[in-house]
Every structure is written in C-alpha cells, then in structure tokens.
User: What shape does this take?
Amino acid sequence: MAELILHPGKERSLFKRHPWVFDTAVAHLAGHARRGDTVTLCAADGRPLAKAAFSPQSKIRARVWTFDVEMPIDHAFFKRRVAQAVARRAALPELRGQDGLRLIHAESDGLPGVIADQYHDEMSGDTVVVQLTSAGADKWRSAIVDGLVKATGCARVYERSDSEVRGLEGLEPTTGWLHGEASAGDIAIGEHGVKMVVDIVAGHKTGFYLDQRENRQMSRRLAENGRVLNCFCYTGGFSLQALAGGAASVLSIDSSQPALDRAAANLALNPSLDAKRAEWRCANVFDELRQLKAAGETFDLIVLDPPKFAPSAAHAERASRAYKDINLLGFRLLAPGGLLMTYSCSGGIGVELFQKIVAAAACDSGRTARIVRRLQGAADHPVDLAFPEGEYLKGLLVQVD
Assistant: This one.
C-alpha cells in the first residue's frame, strides 16, 4: 500500500480526527496509487496515522476511511459501515416510520463522499438513491450498494452521482439503476400526513430535501390563520405543510416552472388542503420580493430557503451580500409580530457568520428582531463533532416587533 507522507506539523488535524488532508499538507507520495486507491497517511517521521482514499486531482488529497491503521479496507469494511449507519437511524424513535430518510451522511457516518437516501412507496416498496461524490466512494461503488441492499432489503437502488463536485475529483457524472427492476423514477411518499411525489431521476439532489423535514413540520404549526410567503419553494414542501396547518393563504415563489408544476401536482394529491388558498408564482425571488414591498404586501410567516450561494469559503463574501439582500427584503415584508424562517445551505457560510448576516439585515430594515429558535437539519443528517463542515444547513427562526 502506498504511503502519503505529510509535512511536519500537518498531522495535527488527524490527531483531532478530522477526515480531510489537503494537498498543501502533503510532502510526497511513497509508492504508486491511482485515483480512489487506499493509502496510508503518515506523519513526516513515518508514523502511520490513518487509512484514506487518494484523490490526486482534488485539493482534498485524501479522505480518511479509518484511523485504525490495522483495519483492512475491503468489501466487508463498507458493508459494516453501511450497516452501522442504518442501525444508528433505526435507534432513534423520531426517525422510525419516515417515508423519506437519509441513511448515510458522508463523513459524519464515516463514509466520505457517500450520500444515501431511502424513499418508501406503499405500492413499489423502498428505493435507495445513492450519490457518490469522491474518488474513494466511486471506487467502492459495488461494495456500498451491496451493503445498502443487505442492510435495508430495498427493492431497488438508483445512482444520482451527477453533482458538480465530482469534477473536482476528476470524475464524470454518472446516473442509473444499480439494483432491482428499473422504474419511472417517481416515488409517492408521505411526510407528516402530506402526500408528495419525489422525482429521483430529475429532481434536485436525490429528489427531495429531506434535511428540512422537521423544519417543514414547524412551519405547519406556525402558519395557522396567517399569510405565508414561501420563497425558493421548489416542489412545495413548506407550502403544503403551511396549508395543512391552516394558513389563510400561501404564496410560493420559484424561478423554475417545472418545479412549480410539480408543487401544484403535489397539492392536488391532498384533497383535504384548500387549493384556493395557494398561489404558485414563477419569478426571480429577489425581484418579486421588491415588487411585493412596493405593492404594500405583508406576511405573517416568511420562509427563505435559497439555493447554495457559497459552495466554499472562497465564495463567502459574494454569498454574504446575497444572503443579506434576501433577508433584508424578508424583514421589510413581515407584518408586526411576524416570523421569519431563514436558512443557508452553503458550506462556506458558518453558523456565526450567518447570524451576523441576518442581524445586519434586520438592522438595515429598521426592525427589532429576536431569535426564537436555531434551526438545523433533521436527525438523520448528523454532524460528526470532529467535522464541523458537515453542518451545512443552518437556520434561524426570528420574530420581529
């Protein structure tokens, strides 16, 4: 096995069990290793520290599989790690019985570059959607899929490894059925009593944003009798929960007409929800919020769940301006006593920075605002304490005077 020798002092992050080694930390490669191969990470004096997946084209030159240098990295290793991740979810009562569930959350489950979401359809059984974004995960595809099938008994597995981040690893996008009989890709699920169809083939990420599950349920409780504005609504998850909670009206805005069409179709699946209270509007959210302000509109609950403005820390400054702008517009549209649910899914924007951005937006809007609750991903999206980068979704529930 090849050895990746680090510069003096660069082993400190490994002692803290952080799973990434950047290219600037590497002194040289001793031996031969191809993309995705397992290498031994060694301190400058030759001490073995961990076993990791090698990625010669990425700035993250190695991603740790295990800090046990005696542990073999083989099919059994991945089947064991997958089974452990599935078992952790099964041990949490709040995750039992969910139709949509994240089974593997990459580094936080000891499987860097591996995402796996399970969707349960009463008619067709369970489908697992897997996304492999790192060289090591790509190399061990078959072992990971075998592990998922064994641990879940799922009927089929579909791959959605079409994220742009694969290009940083020198990998081409790849999608397709890996196990079981192929289906159309539409899966009917329920979430807190609301029915929706998830498109695992063409939808965002693995088809749906499971990380917002509990936050959508919260919006349901907050929406009663209120005027609700859902921005960047995608296929209507927050909107449908607000209607289920008894919202007086829900205005949903997105720049994608196909997403809005899917949202309207999801609403139609729920005849108990009053479709007359819902409006779907295709527009640029920033422009539309300015027009709503000019028209004197106000709302009791506003949801701001924008796309990733900052994929990395290098984009943080530009993204900060976008987050401040959208939150400033949100504050200006809140009725007295109104609530703002605001989120960032950008890894380049940390929790503290995001709060500062929202605070600055409140100040510029001339509103007095208070944090009622800090918001985060659902329990099936855990964050390894040694890997704070895993906390990509952060949010605030803010109330204004």
User: Anything to note?
Assistant: Residues 100 and 119 are 5 Å apart (CA to CA). The chain has three domains: 3-66, 75-188, 209-400. The mean pLDDT is 96.
